[in-house]
Design brief:
mainly alpha
Amino acid sequence: MLSWVAQTQQTMQRQLATAVKNLKSGNAIGAALFLAGLSFVYGVVHAVGPGHGKAIISSYVVANEETVRRGILISFLAAGLQALTAVALVSLLLVALNATGFQVNAWTNQLETVSYAMIALVGLYLLLTELIRLWRRRQTPQEAAHARHDHDNHDHTHGHDHHHDADGEACNHMVDVADIAGPLSWRKVLAVVVSVGIRPCSGAILVLVFALTQGLFWAGVAATFAMALGTAITVAVLATLALGSRELVLKLGGGNERWAEAVWTTCAIGGALVVLTAGLFCLPRRWVRLDPSNSD
């Protein structure tokens, strides 16, 4: 599949270059709309391959008890920020500072390094948060059964059956993601969005540079955001599948509270480790590429 994605991307990149050249021949508006549509399809296909934070966003929403709606929101915000970063980078370096394409590529590599470092920090934060939560649960065993339900502010009028045993033991129903999602934390969301979105998409840089050489930078900007929309859809679908797999595993437990807690803990620690490992694994590779003494 990855081989097909790579081959398709190469073909579509040539088509994008041709579409940009056609901007100055004939109907510019029609050519720009065709370029935007082609960029959208390219974004959908491009996001299937490596990159674009699919593993990061999917692992984060699984580890951090996010709902499907929030997973989709994070996917779209990250893709939108990638588009903004690409436009800002090309505008600043090529338009304002009259830099070369090599300098744009160098800045892109620098931003990629910063992105991986931030990803590693997000993973470390998730891991420490979960380990602290587990330590506190061991310190207060009486609260362990209700830690996921937040009973201090729990509304017993929600729309599914909820009851307690007479002896006050744990609730006899499956953990509902709507109950444990809690208020939306924009600080956490922005941490993931910025760590993924600060690195501009290479395809967007390509389209922007091509469009600039034709004197129609606005068409390149429109195509960049169309590409970001396609990317966001693919990433959001994969993040939703990740969340669905977590909920499926929870349901397989048949409402067993210990099983649910084991699943949540595994997802939280496992997801955090994936995010942390992804950032740390890519950082040394980036340093090797950025090292001027490296002959490769």
